[in-house]
Design goal:
Blueprint: H1 3-20, H2 30-45, E1 49-51, E2 57-59, E3 66-71, H3 79-87, E4 102-107, E5 110-114, E6 124-125, H4 129-135
Antiparallel strand pairs: 1-2, 3-4, 4-5, 5-6
Length: about 140
């Protein structure tokens, strides 16, 4: 797979990981929210920008080929503007959208998830688009 494809697959798999954990009462936002998360992850992986802890975008200051997405007790980083854009609501209103203490590190080779107060769990390899459809979720 070329670099562009890896970036796109990593961004897609990252957005799917967060959408799979979205609480059911917010499911109606899932399609738009998935696209907003995916596009922001892709921008960070390309090194175009990053979103700081408070959700502010910083141009040209990204860390190419890596991205961390966090939901502590509140959303942080790119989840804040993604929520606002997808729902039309302020980012802080997503406090009840996901379970607390979740994080996802994204690279072009793997997703490294952390769920709840536990340790980081097993890495999820980035796979070709043709493989994603076979398992349903990409995991």
């Amino acid at each position: 797979m070329d670099d562009r494809t890896l970036l796109e697959m990593a961004a897609k798999m990252a957005s799917e990981w967060w959408i799979e954990r979205l609480k059911p009462r917010h499911a109606h936002h899932a399609p738009k929210l998935a696209e907003e998360i995916r596009s922001r992850v892709l921008q960070e992986l390309r090194g175009e920008c990053y979103w700081d802890w408070w959700g502010e975008r910083h141009e040209g200051a990204g860390h190419e080929n890596e991205c961390r997405i966090e939901f502590d007790y509140d959303p942080h980083g790119l989840l804040i503007p993604a929520w606002a854009e997808a729902t039309g609501l302020p980012g802080w209103e997503s406090r009840d959208a996901w379970p607390i203490k979740h994080s996802l590190d994204v690279t072009t080779t793997e997703l490294r998830p952390k769920e709840g107060y536990g340790n980081w769990t097993a890495a999820i390899p980035i796979r070709a688009a043709s493989e994603i459809g076979r398992t349903g979720s990409g995991e």
